[in-house]
Amino acid sequence: MGRFLGAFICLAVPATLVLEPLPAQQDPGLTRLEREITRLAALAGGRVGVGAVHLPS
């Protein structure tokens, strides 16, 4: 992740608490990160929530 430093936190949560990611606001690399989070959430079948903290470098 060359242009930014990402710290990931994965938490087990009920499927009803999984939220859709917010649209990327500034960093174009954030769009790619959001797609990956959405992909991982789909693979987990709603059993695991995925969150990310984006720290610009």
Summarize the structure.
With 57 residues, the protein is an alpha+beta fold.
List keywords for this structure.
57 residues; alpha+beta; two-stranded antiparallel sheet
Task: Provide the fold topology.
Elements: E1 4-12, H1 28-43, E2 48-56
Antiparallel strand pairs: 1-2
Helices and strands, in order, run as EHE
| Helix-strand category | alpha+beta
Evaluate the radius of gyration.
12 Å
- Largest sheet descriptor: 2 strands, antiparallel
Between the first and last Cα atoms, what is the distance in angstroms? 11 Å
The DSSP helix count reads 1
Mean pLDDT: 63
- What is the overall shape? elongated
List the uncertain runs.
Answer: 1-16
Percent in strands: 25-35%
The structural domain count equals 1
Strand order of the largest sheet: 1-2
Percent of residues in helical segments? 25-40%
Structure description:
This protein has 57 residues and is of the alpha+beta class. The protein has one domain. The protein has one helix and two strands, in the order βαβ. Strands 1-2 form a two-stranded antiparallel ribbon. The termini are close together.
